[in-house]
Amino acid sequence: MGIASGLARPAARGYKTGSRRYGSGLLPMDDALVRAALDLSGRPFLVWNVDLPTPKIGTFDTELVREFFQALSTHGGITLHVDMLHGLNSHHIADAAFKAVARALRDALEVDPRRADAIPSTKGAL
Fold it and tell me: What are the chain's domains?
């Protein structure tokens, strides 16, 4: 799912022109607080500072959460930082991570009305 989501992102919209390019999200979910920041730079890199305290959420392997974000970053050309600021419950932490990244992506993909026809780069290319 991470690979498909990453590959679909650039194809879904002409993100290189008019987008804000950068986005961030801070998401509280009960005991968990997760921050995500990203750059649609075309240069994939994942910084993952999240500790899921249990190996499973029900029957779901928690190692797959990081794997999803690694695939999203790699195949979407996204520099992505995900940091858990607080958290005790693996389900709340994982849920907060997905939602924080979703909010950051929404911000980054949003059209900047001040630069709707410009590529969001000082170099003029991404």
Answer: 2-13+23-112 (3.30.230.40)
